[in-house]
TrEMBL record:
InterPro entries named among the record's database cross-references: MtfA_fam (IPR010384), MtfA_N (IPR042252)
PANTHER family with a match to the protein in the record: MTFA PEPTIDASE, PROTEIN MTFA
Gene Ontology MF, one: aminopeptidase activity
A UniProt-annotated Pfam family: Peptidase_M90
Superkingdom of source: Bacteria
Protein's name in the database: DgsA anti-repressor MtfA
GO cellular component terms listed in the entry, alphabetical order: cytosol
């Protein structure tokens, strides 16, 4: 009698899982434009006290989270560092602090996504400063190479963008935004679908010539945003995280579209906006 009961229990669990992820969640996403749930970790991974102190020092966003969300944030940082390989170039020693800051930047950008670890890249290469890229025979500050499954950074420029919080230039957000863009074009995960739907609204500001001209004339977004759709998205996200109050005031509809695209809670962003932290 025990065995049939176990089979029935297993069948019921499988049926419930199919019901939730094939019927209930798609319907929920259609109505509310967000996943059915974001965080579910039976045994969340913890950082060491030294690693947690780095987050506290470097990320005002982390500091203003609730204790529960701080636990989720730390878990994701820990999983990110475990999931990806960090490689230093030109004799650069990759320190734990560097890993935490890079992982924290990515975690902040993807905090509204359930499926946050993306297999489009496997390795993070860190150069001391601007480096020569064999991909296009040019000098780069950073790049995402989907063919090689690599994200590369000049650490000098990464940390400058991280420390300077009011110029709307952040190399980490910029390159990781390229990763998310590619991901949403290829994946059918709930977070990717939501990102893609939101992106369709955001990119209208680039594709519509009148809106595009208005953005350029206003001057809030730097000219590099208008190179192509990929750069537009990355620059928009840099502005969203660095000067959210200015963004919302200047382009409230576009700001709302970005919120929806990355499934962000405005309260998490606005309690301690980066633009007021010098």
């Amino acid at each position: 009698m025990v065995f049939p009961f176990f089979v029935l229990l297993l069948f019921g669990f499988v049926l419930l899982t199919v019901l939730v992820f094939r019927i209930i969640e798609p319907t929920y996403m259609l109505i509310f434009h967000k996943p059915l749930y974001l965080y579910f970790y039976l045994y969340p991974k913890k950082l060491t006290s030294e690693q947690r102190q780095i987050l506290t020092t470097e990320f005002p966003f982390y500091n203003q989270l609730s204790d529960r969300k701080k636990t989720y944030f730390e878990h994701r940082v820990k999983e990110f560092i475990k999931h990806y390989q960090f490689v230093g170039k030109e004799d650069l020693l990759v320190k734990d602090e560097m890993k935490i800051i890079i992982a924290g930047t990515y975690t902040m950008l993807t905090f509204g996504m359930r499926d946050y670890l993306i297999d489009l890249f496997k390795t993070i290469i860190i150069y001391p400063s601007v480096y020569f890229s064999n991909a296009n025979q040019q000098y780069h500050k950073g790049e995402f190479n989907p063919m090689m499954k690599v994200v590369a950074f000049s650490w000098e420029d990464f940390i400058l963008g991280h420390k300077t919080t009011n110029d709307n230039i952040n190399l980490g957000f910029h390159e990781f935004s390229h990763v998310l863009h590619f991901h949403c074009l290829k994946s059918n995960q709930p977070s990717a679908i939501i990102f893609y739907d939101g992106f369709q609204e955001v990119v209208k500001y680039f594709n519509n010539q009148n809106l595009n001209n208005q953005l350029q004339e206003n001057g809030y977004f730097r000219l590099y945003a208008f190179e192509n759709q990929f750069e537009f998205l990355s620059v928009v996200l840099e502005h969203f995280f660095e000067t959210p109050l200015d963004f919302k005031k200047t382009y409230p509809e576009l700001y709302a579209n970005v919120l929806s695209m990355i499934n962000f809670k405005e309260s998490d962003l606005m309690k301690n906006p980066r633009q007021f932290i010098v």
